[in-house]
Amino acid sequence: MIINGMAISVNTAQRLYWFGRYVQRAETMLRELVNAYDYIIDRDFEEGHKLYSKLGVEIEYKNALDFLKQGVYGTYGGSIEQIISWARENAIETRHLLDERGFATLNKIYNQLVERRERAVSPSNLEEIIDDCSLILGIFSTELDRTRAYQLIRFGQQIERFDLILRLYGEIEMVAADIDVINAIARQLNRNYRPINVTTSDISKFLVFLNGVVDRVIQKDTCASVSLQTQS
To answer: What's this model's pTM, rounded to 2 decimal places?
Structure first.
């Protein structure tokens, strides 16, 4: 793949893609944590268990504040701290292709999470991180002068959003418009990509659709091409 006149590897393309996915995952799950926290306080103590069961995760908590603590720092795979750490690892490896503001904001989130690990977690803490994640995604989603690197990040962001909506809400209607967006970005990244149309009510088939799109966009043959138009 050629980005800004520079050839990049499949590994770099994948890291940009996963950077986008992890930041989107962090933002989405933080919003879900805040919403579930409100329910646990005065409506349904089991709301936290219901949320994480949709993702195949067992989570234990003593009260609403402990639920936030477990969501951010829990030892299960995929806590907010872990997701941000994964995003940061990918950002470090692709820093030369990233906007400095986005990288600095992600670093700020990571450092604050590490510093506050032994403290209680409050909704206001999470809302601050949500705002920072939104800033990062906004920087890399701008329509103006978007580079191929940013398109890969946005591609990951859209795939993650699609995936989480299906897993958390099970509402196919909520992602119908996203199919066109994903196909459009995939076409920008790879001129040989042909849009995939999905007409089914089976959520599992939609998830297969996602994997198919990613495999067809980020692949060795595409990344190895010297053509500026053929992108991975």
So the answer is: 0.88
